[in-house]
Structure formats: structure tokens, C-alpha cells
UniProtKB/TrEMBL annotation:
<protein>
    <submittedName>
        <fullName>Uncharacterized protein</fullName>
    </submittedName>
</protein>
Length: 145
């Protein structure tokens, strides 16, 4: 979702959020584009890099670390993503609907997106739609250059 919210030519952006276990700790995820993939570097564990990329069929390939094995994650087969606007830069609400019911997990997740200035967005879970997840998912601040 964050990749869709930033402009297409953006080569790096970051997400900041409070750690749900420790409110005083801020976790920063740095997203950097490297050739045909994205690298995600967490601030609290800079050696724990995650790489991901998408192919033309919108399949996601995730690789944990530099020497990790690449795994295919077919998100579109598991869930249906519905933004409330055709243009992602104007989106204020995104719904993730699970296609198959999974035991112990909510049927859908609703994220609210608010503009917080130029090149800044705040992504938060809708507390009314999914009250159980609102404590587990902190508010995320998305910024890019």
C-alpha cells in the first residue's frame, strides 16, 4: 500500500511508527529502490534487511537478507485490495478483504490515509471497523523526498 501512495519516480521513502510493545521506541523502516527490487532496512536492526519485488503479474517476491531464499507471495490470491479512489494520491481509505476466511483473523482490514503536508501521509487502522487490531497496529507516518 505504501508503494502505491508514494509517487512512481520515488526511489526512497520511510515509514515511522511507535513500537506497540514500547510506546517510547520509534521504529523507522527505510525503503530504498535497488535496480529492480526494494530494500527495507529497519532502524532498530540495520543488518536485518528485507528485499522485495513485483513481477508483471503483480506477484510479490520476498527475500530475507542478502543470502536468503526468495519466496513468492501471491497477495492478490489471498486478498482483495479496494482503495476508495482510482488515483492513489487521492486515496483516503483502503480496505483489504480476505478472499478465504482464516481462523482467528478478521475478515477485513480498513486503513485510513490522511495527508499530513507535502510528501507526507499518515496511515492508521480504522478503529471503528476493526477495534481489535487498532492497538496492535500503530499509526504509520510515511514520508518521501
Amino acid at each position: 500500500m505504501a508503494l502505491n501512495l508514494v509517487p512512481a519516480k520515488t526511489t526512497q521513502f520511510k515509514m515511522e511508527m511507535h513500537n506497540p510493545d514500547n510506546d517510547k521506541e520509534v521504529v523507522v523502516l527505510e525503503f530504498k529502490q535497488q535496480k529492480d527490487q526494494w530494500a527495507v532496512v529497519p532502524s532498530h536492526k540495520p543488518d536485518d534487511v528485507l528485499f522485495f519485488r513485483f513481477d508483471k503479474q503483480q506477484h510479490c517476491y520476498v527475500k530475507d537478507g542478502i543470502k536468503g531464499k526468495e519466496e513468492k507471495v501471491d497477495l492478490l490470491n489471498k486478498m482483495h485490495i479496494v482503495p476508495n479512489h482510482k488515483k492513489w494520491k487521492k486515496v483516503t481509505k483502503v480496505v483489504f478483504d480476505l478472499k478465504k476466511e482464516q481462523e482467528g483473523s478478521p475478515r477485513h482490514l480498513v486503513f485510513m490515509v490522511a495527508k499530513d503536508g507535502k510528501k507526507k501521509r499518515i496511515i492508521s487502522i480504522d478503529k471503528k471497523a476493526v477495534p481489535d487490531m487498532s492497538k496492535a497496529m500503530p499509526e504509520m507516518h510515511l514520508t518521501w523526498k
